[in-house]
DNA sequence: CTAGGGTTAG
């Protein structure tokens, strides 16, 4: 069985495997298929056969394969390829950059560290591109201390090295470090700004994100598509319709509305800041650039604003256009039904999702269904669904039910929901804002004295929570 | 050769 090992195959330089009819090759493929080791392994071995037959010692084609694999959906193949073709690639800095890219794609810091050792051995440890790629491996894997160390010891840093650190740290929520790096770097480009803006948006520091965006524009740096994508959530949370229209206008001027992702995020932005008309305008203009996300975004925009019939019409149109809905499309569709009181249709869509489209329902889908039943006053059915959920129940579904209970004055069920919510919050060490919301809801059901009693109980419960925060710091 | 990415129940 040792001949199954690809490295063994590579060592056999001659004679080369002649054709696909070679019994050895046939056996090998049969074996691979028999072992059900799927496409991945077959692909890997197949590639090596071709590469071996055609290229043999020449490193360039190996490098091309490595590049293709490291950027594609199968980064593991890049690692395999590298390991088996090391004799061709060991001194190639390009190959190291690619294979490190693959490690980043896999989020494998250990593999990165091994390559680091190899880099030291080969004497190009401080090659700027390769070392940047190494820093990136650490940063995307969340090994921020390692990343910082590796970055710190780089004798020559380029702008990409800094940007790797900024986007990485911002992406892991370390906005302050990202800011520090941003302020320290000798010169910044649009990626540096975008990375930081994205960090602020993710950290819900929307005002800062928008301020930074304006600062960037004022500094004469032109936002890219990605910058727009990064700043949109901030504007939809904090900016008004005017700011949204300004951004939209800017995108048109710069010609980046033609990017489907930008168009889609504008649809969503307008929906969230209260202008479905503008959402529709953007959607209409997209014409042939519409994709599944565009359709889903516009359906969800209509659903958000209670335009259920229109949302369902769009869904029908989407299907006529031959686009297959996904789990998020169905979420929006069921949400539309929920907001419009179209209970039976919503249930039918849910069924169709599961049985016709073979999409496994998630907690969010059930959340919509529960909301739909609850809004229509079918509270018992809603509660039964929660109790029979095939997955872990979260606070949100109970909160949905609670909202419906308070709407219909269902005191007993409401109390049960509150109990579940406070239990779940306690488990996750919930915060005071959430707690006070629950108590607010509670006030609708029980008298002041009972509420106070519950509050006292909660205070007792909160003590360990406070102590825990102390421990962390 | 190394950096940024859209829609998701209340």
Task: Describe the fold and architecture.
With 473 residues, this protein is mostly helical. Among the domains are: 158-239; 385-473. Helices cover 75% and strands 0% of the residues. It has 28 helices and no strands. The protein has helices at 6-11, 23-34, 38-54, 59-71, 75-84, 86-89, 93-106, 109-122, 128-140, 144-152, 159-171, 175-184, 190-202, 206-218, 225-238, 241-254, 260-272, 276-286, 292-304, 308-320, 327-340, 343-355, 363-375, 379-387, 395-408, 411-427, 432-443, 448-472. The radius of gyration is 28 Å and the shape is globular. Mean pLDDT is 83; it is low at 1-38 and 455-473. The structure holds one DNA strand of 10 nucleotides.
Task: Give a brief outline of the structure.
This is Pentatricopeptide repeat-containing protein. By secondary structure, the chain is mainly alpha-helical.
